[in-house]
Amino acid sequence: MKPYDFVPILGAKKYIKLLDLKSGKIRVSIEVVTPVHVFSGYYNENGNTVFREFAKYNGKYIIPGSSLKGCVRTIAESVSRSCISTSQDVRKIGKDIKDSNDCIICDMFGSLGKKSRLRFADFKLVKNNGVEIINIPTFYGPRPENKCYYSDDGKFKGIKFYSHGDGNIIEKGAIPCEFVMPGSTFEGDVFYDDLDDNQLDLLCFSLGLSGDIYLKLGYGKPAYYGSVKVKSIDDKIDASKRASRYGMNDNDVAKNVKRLKDLLSWDKRHIKSVWRTVNNQRGY
Predict the structure, then answer these.
(1) Per-10-residue mean pLDDT for the chain, 284 residues long?
(2) Whole-number Å distance between alpha carbons of 203 and 191
């Protein structure tokens, strides 16, 4: 058993937008559930320990908007008819150069030569429940030769999502990183421009605003770090209702929504680590 599983790729379809386009913003809070580390790109010292520093702006802890946007886009791609190909090598997964940038994801999140209709502001720490240096394991990139990434017909299984796990099963190692601890909260805004109702529903679902899924942010996801709960605040669009109804009119999309909920539901988190010890080293 691995600390991840896959959501099948539905295949691309040209998206025809509905009328009555909407623009506005969603103010959301991000509650840390298991320790989160978003690397700033800089290192710092604590006594004799050199550690990877958490992202900051003007000395204040932040989750960069780009970090949340990348996570949300991946979720949205997994539950929509986006232009990701099942025939590509896992190392090159992404858009085909022949695509015309007209799927629902390209319209919302942008693509080469197409401006995004979404802007994710940086999320500022508004409740600090502690910051700690935690030594975490060494992680490696995907190994595309591993058969677990492919189905029996040789096609890529889909988009990979890491499982949530109880805070007491997070894996330790030798890489010191600065973590914001559970109970801490970040707040910020997501701005949207000219989305139709279906797109706005998809955005709300992919942010986890129904409460059915928790997101994973930052470094250390395979070792059960980075679980967060996202909620809408100052809600003017009934975001939870929108998130809950997404996919109801498309059976294939609804199946992927259910699959993703099964993978990212906090209620279905791992209560025992699937990591194992081999040759005195922990791995999965």
Answers:
(1) 90 88 96 98 93 96 97 96 63 48 89 90 98 92 71 81 96 96 98 97 98 97 97 93 94 96 97 90 85
(2) 11
Which letter does DSSP use for residue 219 in this model? S
- The token pair that represents 283 in the structure block: 């791995």
As a three-state string, the secondary structure of 192-217 is EEEECHHHHHHHHHHCCCCCCCCEEC
Q: How far is CA 179 from the centre of its chain?
A: 18
User: Which amino acid is it at 126?
Assistant: V
Copy the structure tokens of residue 117.
Answer: 């209709």
Alpha-carbon torsion, ordered 79, 80, 83, 87, to 10 deg:
50
For residues 219, 222, 223 and 229, what is the CA-based torsion angle, rounded to 10 degrees? Answer: 70
**Tokens 């294939």 identify what position?**
252
Distance CA 84, CA 109 (A): 14
Whether pTM > 0.90 for this model: the answer is yes
Extract the tokens encoding 167. Answer: 């805070």
